[in-house]
């Protein structure tokens, strides 16, 4: 059987935000790479995911020349609101940190990254199958896969495992070489995409006795909503009428807020978990993004954390391949994990503060409300939330 053999400097597995941003960063540094993706382009570009971009994430996309459409279509949010105990309180990011967040769907980010990568002639193979990583612990790793009915082998100096939580990269590390820390939350999120104009300028995180709800948006005509549901719940239990009733109950009821309804375009249920695999490296295989860690979505950090990883990785790879200096690669996991754990802490804290915990007592509920009171009245506490929400500066090494 003939095997098509190709050579590159960095083999990237996965065309999500991690793999695509890494590819753009490496290309800027003049480093050759190939991206392998097991899904179709339509599938990758169609997935509805989160939509909050940190300030440093947008700065990086701008540096890479990837914000033409974002600058036209994205929405700048200068703060965020918390609703609890019948009131609404705003945290003013701009006043507290001088920075803002950008609301632009991850799906749009991925579309822009793919279009520009292909435009510049970048290598990206969709619908590959049977991806296997070989010799990650030697200095000549390779990746084999099948595409167009043929077997391929991609030889590389570095393999970047950017294939998400269910990918092959983390799974290919021998048992015992990775340590896992994990927390599963006793609830899930029902995500709803609705064709209805948003009626507020900013996101509303609502902590309600019946459970958490989040009011977000994608454009002047599309609202994005989330409801805390049971971990084993299914979308079949949530016809449109029940969704709107529950949202109306959990979101603010004051005169200043209007929940506009419209056709529901999509619903999906996402489990809530925190997960970290360490180290984020096995020999020449480097894990980045969801392949290495998952955060509960309450902090809106998944994509941003993936981008932070590949900023460190691209810099480390350049030092190694162009200057023969392995120190960046050696420090990669420790540098990334420092941020990962700060973001896990933030996401766990936001999750605990805002969700309903079944079996929780009155005392625990009062503590949640007091926490929300503290974070929305103390400038020190609000600043602590704001500086992480808008995005900690990237570390390069
Ligand atoms: N071979 C090739 N590609 C694969 C394989 C495989 N065996 N397994 C998975 N993939 C692809 C997926 O189809 C997906 O396109 O890897 C990509 C991983 O992308 P993401 O899951 O988006 O992960 P990441 O790039 O780390 O981005 C993290 O995106 O998934 C969200 O919630 C997540 O917001 C977070 C951010
Ligand atoms: C979203 O708009 O999809 C979104 C916003 C904030 C979150 C999570 C998701 O915390």
Count of individual helical segments: 12
What is the beta-strand fraction?
A: 25-35%
Distance between the termini: 44 Å
Radius of gyration: 22 Å
**CATH homologous superfamily designation of the domain at 3-80 and 105-181 and 273-354:** FAD/NAD(P)-binding domain
The gross shape turns out to be globular
The CATH top-level class label of the domain at 3-80 and 105-181 and 273-354 = Alpha Beta
Strand order of the largest sheet: 7-6-15-16-17-14-18-21
Could you list the spans in which at least 5 consecutive residues all have pLDDT below 50? none
Derived structural class: alpha/beta
Question: Could you say what the CATH architecture of the domain at 3-80 and 105-181 and 273-354 is?
Answer: 3-Layer(bba) Sandwich
Biggest β-sheet: count, sense, barrel?
Answer: 8 strands, mixed
The third-level CATH topology of the domain at 3-80 and 105-181 and 273-354 is FAD/NAD(P)-binding domain
């Amino acid at each position: 059987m003939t095997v098509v053999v190709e050579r590159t400097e960095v083999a990237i597995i996965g065309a999500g935000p991690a793999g695509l941003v890494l590819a753009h960063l490496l290309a800027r540094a003049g480093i050759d790479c190939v991206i392998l993706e097991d899904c179709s382009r339509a599938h990758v570009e169609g997935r509805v995911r989160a939509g909050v971009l940190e300030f440093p994430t947008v700065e990086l996309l701008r540096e890479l020349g990837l914000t033409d459409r974002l600058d036209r279509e994205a929405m700048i949010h200068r703060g965020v609101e918390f609703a609890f105990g019948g009131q609404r309180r705003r945290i003013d990011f701009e006043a507290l940190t001088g920075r803002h967040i950008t609301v632009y769907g991850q799906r749009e980010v991925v579309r822009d990254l793919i279009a520009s990568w292909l435009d510049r002639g970048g290598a990206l193979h969709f619908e590959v199958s049977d991806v296997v990583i070989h010799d990650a612990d030697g200095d000549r790793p390779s990746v084999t896969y099948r595409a167009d009915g043929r077997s391929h082998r991609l030889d590389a100096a570095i393999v970047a495992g950017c294939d998400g939580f269910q990918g092959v990269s983390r799974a290919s590390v021998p048992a015992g070489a990775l340590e896992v820390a994990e927390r599963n939350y006793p609830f899930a999120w029902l995500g709803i995409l609705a064709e209805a104009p948003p009626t507020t300028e900013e996101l509303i995180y609502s902590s309600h006795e019946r459970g958490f709800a989040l009011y977000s948006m994608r454009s002047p005509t599309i609202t994005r909503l989330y409801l805390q549901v049971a971990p084993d719940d299914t979308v079949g239990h949530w016809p449109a009428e029940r969704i709107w009733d529950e949202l109306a109950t959990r979101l603010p009821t004051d005169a200043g807020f209007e929940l506009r309804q419209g056709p529901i375009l999509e619903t999906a249920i996402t489990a809530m978990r925190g997960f970290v695999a360490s180290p984020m490296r096995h020999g020449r295989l480097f894990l980045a993004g969801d392949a290495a860690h998952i955060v509960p979505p309450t902090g809106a950090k998944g994509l941003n954390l993936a981008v932070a990883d590949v900023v460190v990785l691209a810099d480390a790879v350049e030092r190694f391949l162009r200057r023969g200096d392995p120190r960046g690669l050696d420090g990669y996991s420790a540098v990334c994990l420092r941020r990962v754990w700060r973001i896990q802490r933030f996401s766990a804290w936001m999750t605990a503060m805002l969700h309903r915990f079944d079996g929780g007592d009155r005392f625990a509920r009062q503590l949640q409300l007091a926490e929300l009171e503290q974070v929305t009245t103390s400038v020190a506490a609000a600043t602590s939330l704001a500086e992480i929400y808008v995005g900690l500066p990237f570390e390069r090494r």
